[in-house]
Amino acid sequence: MKQRILGCLLAALMSLGAMAEVKYVFYFIGDGMGVNQINVTETYLAALKGKIGFEPLLMSSLPVVGMVNTYSATNGVTDSAAGGTALATGKKTKNGAIGVLKDLETPVTSIAQWAKNSGKAVGVATSVAVTHATPASFFGHQPDRNMYYELGKDLCKSGFDFFGGSDFHRPYAKEGEPSLHEQAQAAGYTIVKGYKEYMKKGRQAEKLLLFQSDKANEKLGSDQIPYALDQTKDDLTLEQITRAGINFLMSKNTDGFFFEVEGGMIDWACHSNDIGNCINEVIDFDKAIKVAYEFYEQHPDETIIVISADHETGGLVMGVGPYEIHTDLLKYQRKSINELKWMLREQYKKAPKKFTWEAVDKVLKEEMGFGAGIDLNDKQKERIQNRWKEIEKAIKEDKKVNDRIGDLCETTKHILSEVAMISWASGGHSNGYVPIYAIGPGTEIFQGRIDNIEIAPGMAKIAGYKVEQ
User: Fold this and answer.
1) Closest Cα to residue 249, out of 343, 445, 387, 112?
2) Are the C-beta atoms of residues 77 and 429 closer than 8 Å to each other?
């Protein structure tokens, strides 16, 4: 017994010693990424190799594995604002609130601020707008997540070293105040558009905002970078944002850094019940994690990587009754459903007289595999044809053509889930467990079942940050 106690004490001392050495902290958040989002992705990767089972992602291969409760202070099912605040600050709050308690007045600071106060460089990155709920939870203090302009002002005041994402959402105020871009520049931030521009002039900046190109914003708005399925070689990616963030934070010559990275569009794909898009967003998120893991391999005694999620989205389940799944068929989906809508609407806009069933059928074959890899049954073919008839009617009446094209694409995504044997409970969030994966000194504290408010304080303890209100 005495030897056992001494052994435990020695292990504890060694763990504390290791924790004192941690300089580099990565915090990855897959928005909407429940355990089944991981499971379906790994099942799909295995199916591509012709086997039943799973092909592990990097994140789920890390040595520390646990599951996390996600309810908020006021709701059994959280939203991203309350979920993000819990993950960032270790405090639960009301759905819709950012960086304040459920009274909507008392501000709470995040692990990013604790890191900054400890002399670390700080970065916050996402695949969506930097003022969306999850990234904003690390710097913002507002009663309503929709106060995008005010959250942008909070960003400018934060003094954090690096921000990466699509852009600001709603960067202009109605009152005629300066735009958020102008306020950021006045606060000492250099704004660069795209990874190439970052490589040319961003690395020497004092503080940096890495956004996507104006061309991408023209098509998508400032809300998001393109989905992984839709990206071209010129598009900014989450992998590039992560690589740039590490490079920039290391250049600050501080005693380490804290870097939060969100895969924000897993959630969006699941809200849309767009299964192929969901899988590719999880894979894309894992690519960003690989960039951090490469860094970890160079600094294994000084680095921790923690990966979790704010909530599950969609109530995703593999199975619809029969004891089989066909995720391999999802390899034929080459575009997100949003991009499919855009393609067909543009096709109609540019050449309405050539917008025939044959033209639409060609797109469905090329981009969704319908009739070219995926064989539809008679009822599914009939549903597609009925949608086309509605489009024809709308064209004749010259009204709501884009709406009817959207309806066709919505039917397409439902059929994709059907053929893969995937079911969805809703288009909203659920209270399903989300995973936590980790590697690095001291991260064994995240094993087992934990609550989301335990993660940020636990990481702070490992890194030696002082937890503040």
Assistant:
1) 112
2) yes
CA 349, 353, 354, 357 torsion-angle sign: positive
Among all chains, which residue has been given the structure tokens 């989906």?
Answer: 333
User: How distant is the alpha carbon of residue 339 from its chain centre?
Assistant: 18
What distance in Å separates the CA atoms of residue 352 and residue 82, rounded to the nearest whole number? 46
Per-residue pLDDT, 64: 98
Distance in angstroms (rounded) separating the CA atoms of residues 407 and 388: 9
**pLDDT digits 0-9 by tens, 278-331:** 999 999 999 999 999 999 999 999 999 999 999 999 999 999 989 999 999 999
Asked if residue 233 has pLDDT above 70, the reply is yes
CB 275 within 8 A of CB 40: yes
Exposed/middle/buried for 39, CB within 10 Å: 0-12, 13-18, 19+?
Answer: middle
Give pLDDT, residue 4.
36
The amino acid that residue 147 corresponds to is M
Q: Tell me: pLDDT of 23 over 90.
A: yes
Identify the pLDDT of residue 297.
98
Amino acid of residue 418 = E
CA 222 from centre of chain? 15
Provide the phi-psi class of 242: left if phi over 0, else alpha when psi is between -120 and 50, else beta.
alpha
462 contacts 19 by C-beta, under 8 angstroms: yes
Rounded to two decimals, the pTM is 0.95
Share of the chain above pLDDT 90, in %: 90
* Residue ranges of the chain assigned to CATH 3.40.720.10: 13-318+426-463
Q: Which residues contact 209 (CB under 8 A, 6 or more apart)?
A: 130, 163, 164, 184, 189, 190, 191, 192
444-451 long-range contacts (CB < 8 A, ≥24 apart) are: 444/15, 444/64, 446/64, 446/66, 446/306, 447/64, 447/65, 447/66, 448/66, 448/67, 449/66, 449/67, 449/68, 449/69, 450/66, 450/67, 450/68, 450/69, 451/68, 451/69
- Which of 433, 448, 434, 432 has its CA nearest to residue 64? 448
* CA-CA-CA-CA torsion sign (285, 291, 297, 302): negative
Dihedrals phi, psi of 268, to nearest 5 degrees:
-65, -40
pLDDT digits (tens, 9 = 90+) for 422-452: 999 999 999 999 999 999 999 999 999 999 9
* Angstrom distance (rounded) from CA 127 to CA 132: 10
Nearest to 71 by CA among 438, 467, 434, 447: 434
What are 365-368's contacts with CB under 8 Å, separation 24+? 366/334, 367/333, 367/334, 367/335, 367/340, 367/343, 368/332, 368/333, 368/334, 368/335, 368/340, 368/412, 368/416
User: What CATH number does the domain located at 13-318+426-463 have?
Assistant: 3.40.720.10
Distance (Å, whole) CA 33 – CA 309: 6
